[in-house]
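ok trying again, last paste got cut off:
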Amino acid sequence: MVFFTADLHLGHANSIRHNGRPFESLEEMDEAIIARFNSKVSRNGDVFILGDIFWGGGAEANKILRRLNGKKYLIRGNHDFKFLEDPDFDRSIFEWVKDLDFVKYKKKMFVLSHYPFFEWYGYHRGYIHCYGHVHNRYIRINDRELDGKARLAMLGNRAFNVGVDVNNYAPVSADDLINIVSARVATHAY
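nice, full thing came through this time. structure:
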């Protein structure tokens, strides 16, 4: 199985308040996210993490990230540099670390980025764009606040926020994404 996720923010207490997460403490949040992650991803599963996985230093990241199942591939997010650049961090935890990637699964192409794109390579060929970064918050364009539904409408029906804040704090399977995007395209829904 192949999974996608983003914005776990393990070790980041402020993410509870900033993102309205339903946890009382950092320990509760970390344990819940790790448990939900491991309930979906098997030991041998592939999981593409689209940034902002951990907040803190390398030694702490090693302890937490080793608890996550699967072969892990990291698309760097804006909060990953601290632990990635720490000499104490064990980079072998990840199969690779990149800024952008393309993955083919069941004849579908996925464009992976931490950041949402309004248009991406393969946009007109049916490629599915997976992103994170925006959590569950609104975005602003020309001083106008747009909610999540409006944001999806702007990105198109083949873009999908794989962040934990909008996916029950768990990874999303590639099979589920294919089904969701196919249904959106068929009904022109976002």
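cool. Residues 43 and 70 are 4 Å apart (CA to CA). The mean pLDDT is 91.
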